[in-house]
TrEMBL record:
Entry keyword Ribonucleoprotein: no
InterPro entries in UniProt: Flavodoxin/NO_synth (IPR008254), Flavodoxin_CS (IPR001226), Flavoprotein-like_sf (IPR029039), Metallo-B-lactamas (IPR001279), NADH_oxidoreductase_modular (IPR051285), ODP_dom (IPR045761), RibonucZ/Hydroxyglut_hydro (IPR036866), Rubredoxin-O_OxRdtase (IPR016440)
Cofactor(s) the protein needs: FMN; Fe cation
SMART domains, alphabetized: Lactamase_B
Similarity section: In the N-terminal section; belongs to the zinc metallo-hydrolase group 3 family.
Identification of the protein by name: MBL fold metallo-hydrolase
Domain (Flavodoxin-like) ranges: 264-403
Classification via PANTHER family: DIFLAVIN FLAVOPROTEIN A 2-RELATED
Entry-linked CDD domains: flavodiiron_proteins_MBL-fold
Coiled coil spans: none
Amino acid sequence: MLAKLPEPVEIAGGVHWIGALDPDLRTFDLILKTANGTTYNAYAVRGPEGVVVVDTVKEEFSEEFFTRLEQVADYDEIRAVILNHLEPDHTGAVPELMRRAPHAHIFCSVRALKVLTALLKDELDNYGYTLTDTGDRCSLSGRPISFVNTPYLHWPDTQCTFLEDEKLLFSGDVFGCHFCDDRLYNDRVGDFRFSFEYYFKHIMRPFKRWVLQAVDKIEPLAPELIAPAHGPILRDNPLSYVRSYRTLSNSYLPNEVEGREKSLLVFYMSAYGATADMAKAVHDGASSVEGVRVSLYDLQGGETEPFVDLIESADGLVFGSPTVNGDAVKPVWDVLASLISIETRGKLGGAFGSYGWSGEAVPMIEDRLRGLKMRVPAKGLRIKFHPTDKELDDCRDYGRTLAESLVGKAKPKVVDFADL
Ligand code: FEO
């Protein structure tokens, strides 16, 4: 069922879906796989005093959008254009829409203004706009509308718009997924559970604490219909998707929920066993600190994705890598590159490794950890060739120092001028 819909679809009283279908898309935003394509959902809300447009579509689908819009409204009836999120897949048709709709006034979040200015450039001076925040209410075209600011789901600008008389939440990217099916409704389209969770994992997951704040605002509204900007419209049990966002944002180890233990993960790769011996010593040293649960993983023995799940709920990460051709080894980089999908800010980080000539791997890993906004409390440990017993003691000290830092027992740091 992937043929293009010829007509707009009325999804609630006076509310039409006027979006576009993109069944052939296979990669979204360079990183997301979209085996089912996607949709760019936009809506028109008719009231006694005119029409409100909620979001638009990607630019190349503009004509499809305008064709549907023209079937439910004349351009001079449009009183408001609400932009829940200003990424180009939802604002591609905005410049042309504003040129065609002479009475349209823009509504977007306070944080969206910079992007709106970049989108419309000098033309913005020709239009009126209102910046919205949570709790703002108004009558637009005679329909009661309120706004819910949902920053970082997944851009700073994002908001949801609530049509109060229909209890309909226009949720932007939130509760969306990349799934294209012209039957539109969640109780009629194919099984999209995988797409919903995949989308959350790659788009919303780094912002879990913001997701929980947003869910706290949305649940009391008890929406009876959720109309996201991508994928199926959620009319069957819409609150289950809100609850799902809460569940997906609450994954912690049992002890961490109670705040009894910190989790420190030690990952390593080893060519000749030297970095492996270092890893075991780092693990042993860290394990001697009470209140820290330490886990040791050889990256040769696992896939990257499950490790990313582990890392998300950990408090500290230490990576061991030999230096090969002046670099850390690929499995280490694979894990480090995958961390963009989770929140790493504030976690503790460390690096160690054996080397033969130059030993760049350790400082390169440390730079990456700092780039991920992690704190690196101790200088990484590099050992030439195989560690001696004395050097293994240094590894145990290093692990102990990291673990003590994790539980707030670290000794004051003495800065060596040679390190500056
Ligand atoms: Fe669907 Fe963040 O754009």
